[in-house]
Amino acid sequence: MIKADFHHKQHYKIQAYSKKILYITLFLTLSFALIEYIGGILSNSLALLGDSFHMFSDVIALGFSLIALIFSSKKPNKKYTFGYVRLEIIAAFINGLMLLGISIYLIFEGIMRFLNPRDIDFKSMLLIATIGLIFNIIITIILTKSLKEEDNLNIQSALWHFLGDLISSIGIIISSTIIYFTNYQIVDVIMSIFISIILFRGGYKITKSSFIILMEATTLNTEEIYKEIEEIEGIKNIHEFHVWHTDTNETNAAMHILLDEYHITKDYTIVENVKILLKEKYGIEHCFVALENIKYNNH
């Protein structure tokens, strides 16, 4: 018997370089998050403390991403026939919820700090924020280089996190400078709320995108896709029609197609026409089609 090599999806990913980068980034981020947290307490800076929480959320996000990456390299088995790649989406969903929670807490803390102001140590705040800016630039460069080596969703997600951290570090430097020259302590609270809004928007986008994937939903216009498939010659009816995202880069489709009695002998051609339409117009490369014949299938 000849063993054929079909072009089916393997349902696992082996990306050693990305794994190495995540280990390094995780260690560096955890180290600096601790420094920033201690600095925020010592300087009484809410913005600096808020940014440390953001960094801790990055640590947890990187941890989930690393676990997902390790498991995604495992091949499918009898129980997990689709493998473990979906763990990347679960990790993103948890991370998104954490960002939402942290941002809401920081806004609440900002209101409390506004009602009960505290003195801020300008030198400590500026020093640690400057170190944070340099740190985030280095991590951003590392992650960008990693993406050139291996295309990985987790690395892309981490990169966007650290771009957000860059904005936070710049914001803290600006607020600490304003406080130094004007002594307007309220600027720290305003900047912390601004950072919280950035966190909330990022968390909302991540949570929404991962929720759509976990619910096996789609952002595509399914009514339009259905009508275009229905117009293909030889198709009498379409049912059990489904379109869903398996991750941010891949979309699947599945359907039962009832052929009319004049095109029964052209079943393979019709299936190929459906696949070509889905791939070329909607970017759907994975399509599952069950053909039905009114002579043999009860309708």
Describe it for me?
It is found in: Membrane. Pfam families: Cation_efflux, ZT_dimer. Residues 23-215 form the Cation efflux protein transmembrane domain. It comes from Gemella sanguinis. InterPro entries: Cation_efflux, Cation_efflux_CTD, Cation_efflux_CTD_sf, Cation_efflux_TM, Cation_efflux_TMD_sf, CDF/SLC30A. The chain has eight helices and three strands. It has helices spanning 16-43, 46-72, 87-115, 122-149, 153-182, 186-214, 222-230, 267-282, and strands spanning 235-245, 251-259, 286-293. The model is unreliable at 1-7 (pLDDT under 50). It is mainly alpha-helical and 299 residues long. The chain has a three-stranded mixed β-sheet with strand order 1-2-3. α8 (267-282) links the parallel β2 (251-259) and β3. The relative contact order is 0.11. The longest helix has 30 residues, at 153-182. Helices cover 66% and strands 9% of the residues.
What form results from the Cα inertia axes? elongated
The spatial strand order of the largest sheet comes to 1-2-3
Largest sheet: 3 strands, mixed
Total of helices? 8
Q: Give the amount of beta strand, in percent.
A: 5-15%
Helix content: 55-70%
- Number of E-type strands: 3
| End-to-end C-alpha gap | 38 Å
Q: Mean of the pLDDT scores?
A: 79
The parts where pLDDT drops under 50 for at least 5 residues are: 1-7
Q: What order do the helices and strands follow? A: HHHHHHHEEHE
Q: How would you classify the helix and strand content by structural class?
A: mainly alpha
Rg from Cα: 26 Å
Membrane topology: Multi-pass membrane protein
Domain Cation efflux protein transmembrane: 23-215
Subcellular location: Membrane
InterPro entries: Cation_efflux, Cation_efflux_CTD, Cation_efflux_CTD_sf, Cation_efflux_TM, Cation_efflux_TMD_sf, CDF/SLC30A
